[in-house]
Amino acid sequence: MSSTITTEAVEKTVTDALISFGAEPADVTPETELTTLDIDSLDLAELSQIVDDEYGVTMKSSDVSKIKTVGDIVALIVAKG
Amino acid sequence: MSPKTTPGLVRPEGACALVTGASKGIGAASALALAADGWPVAVHYGRDAAGAAATVAAIEAAGGRAVAIAGDVADPGAADAILSAAEAQLGPVLALVNNAGITDDGLAMQLEDDAFDRVIATNLNGPFRLTRRALGPMVRARHGRIVNVASIVGLRANAGQANYAASKAGLVGLTRTVAAEVARRGVTVNAVAPGFIATAMTHEIPEGQLGAIPARRPGSPEEVAACVAFLASDAAAYVTGSVLTVDGGLSA
Cys bridge to B221: A51, A52, A81, B29, which one at CB 3.0-4.6 A? Predict the structure, then answer.
């Protein structure tokens, strides 16, 4: 059963995931660039799995490779949902 | 160091193991060994429904839990179907044993495309797709065990098996690289490399070849299964990217 996709819900999912990967909560804002959070390709792969599980949205590696900021991830998921 | 905070150290409750090609031989023995270790087991088979049913019955007779799941691992859609069926019946698959394999022997200079492609599709592409499908839930669970049943033929020459050797060497490369990719999530990926094991697949071991084995005998499926069960266990949490030869010293 997939959750309803709203920007707020997706923001929370993505923020929680990034924090679980080791990001400092205070550092996670829509403008934050992922490189400054020390988020790597395995983290993004796991995030894709989380998004698939929660929302039924599949993020391709070609989509993920264009992501720069936290807000980009949220926008991508909302756009695909 | 607390076991509760170290990824991969302790198997979560409610997880199951999936063994491909578990209707007979090394796969059936591995399914039984994992069940004896407390894993509910999804017993995958290609065509031998009776063999898979016998494996399930043997696990249940020993007090374990198992279901049989059919599928052709060479089919690109099979990985998702097999994993989804296992998840629906037994819970998340946190141990995957890629055992299903075929041979189609011939000297390379006479080997036809179809014989080469079929062996690669079953022995290498199948395990890759099953691994890819299994990794997401394992990474999220911070626990996973993938054991690939390779062969000493993937490590050293065996004339007449260029396709099989290539598939098993590929499986070893897959094992090592995926192990490095997911190690920090508590997911281990290892291979066993059996030598001459007395199974239906190796019924024609020439008498003369036994003399080349330092142990002077073929191995049993149970001796390989014990290694598979170890690599799938909590005790093997720090073993990853390794290839464990089980060959009576043949490649020593």
Answer: B29
